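Ticket #4471: structure export looks truncated?
Reporter: QA, pipeline team
Priority: medium

Steps to reproduce: submit the single chain below to the structure queue and open the exported record.
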Amino acid sequence: MNSILTANPKEHGATLQLRRRSLLASSVGNLLEWFDWTIYAVFSPFIAKALFDPSDPTSALLSTLAVFAVGFAFRPLGGILFGTLADRVGRRTTMITTMLLMAAGSLLIAVTPSYAAIGGFASLLLVVARLLQGLAHGGETTASYAYVSEIAPPRHRGLWSSAVFVSVSVGTLFATALGAGISAALPEADAAGWGWRIPFFLGAGLAVVALFLRRGMMESEVYEEQIAATGERTPATETPKLSRRTLIVRGLKLMLYEGGTNVVYYTWTSFAAVFAITYHDMNPSSAFLASVFAQLIYIAAIPIGGFLADTWGRKPVTLIFYSAFIIGIFPLMGMITDEPWTLFIAQSIALVFIALVAGSKPAVLSELLPTQYRTRMLGFSLSLAVAIFGGTAPYLNQWLYGEGLGWAFNVYIIVLCLIGMAVVSTWRETKGVSLQDIT
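Actual output as written to the record:
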């Protein structure tokens, strides 16, 4: 892979080293964002005891999870807000802002006094912190998709953009591992009393490192060329503008493409182990361990997905993904029993196919939108798709399987994948296209 990143220096010019440093800075910041986002879910039982009324543990935990949902609800607003900002003031500035906003939310959670000390104000401060993080998370996803694609060499844009989902997955696993480590290292009373605050302090502290790296990032040359066309830091006015109808149609197509990918992604990354535990009585610790190993395979497969998208094209690998779940969702879900190895095999197979999309998604989406609209459109389409399809996937899975209608959830996935396949079939192949040529 290193040889790919360093090949043909003339193609990358004198800025190759800066491009690689910028890719690293973007990835580290993205990893931190997802670490900060995930530790809330990992430590939610401890947060419930510390920042909500402990006299009703069930209500406290439900309230904590409700606050988690509030953060998800603000992701679309963050995507739209920071997507517009990235088109106006630049990708680099926006990504520094979203990183600091996420870190500020983590620090606020870390220092919030307990419910016993300040009563309901503790819960209020937690809500404020998660609102900040929801805004930051939506904005970071939008800006990083566009930024990594724009600084990448055109022939290897898929491979470079795979760094986005690698950092996402590593950040999530890091948060989960830290949760397991703190729970194992500290007595339960200490973990509930102060130990749960450690990862939030750590997330805020690591922001200093990420800030140092991101301050040295280059601005996207594609974006700078767009600005140079007008001489002002607003979306270009000299390039052809898309009509409102065209923007709406493209946005809806992106949402339909994202529908199938999001439902499949959240089903197999976030809920597979819970599904095995809940409906097949799998031992919890064994289920989570099997899931961790499956996700390690997924992380290794993501760059391969990006490389294949650069080699075969964007459309073939995306259509293979959709076809795999149209054909395979019933066998994969049916493969899971109470034996942990069945979860490992099923989840690994599913995640390898998901890696085909994850490895190239930032490149695919960026190549479909002109620079002057790119982050705004990504912010709108991605965030709404996550809220509508991704955020509801675990709930629908649990509800339908609980009602004995698991087949309906599988059919739901098949329908969304068929729709996504139909949308992608209408797209032109964009492998290696210059982003400046997209209209």
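Status: closed, not a bug. The export was complete when the record was re-opened. Leaving a note from the reviewer for reference: The radius of gyration is 22 Å.
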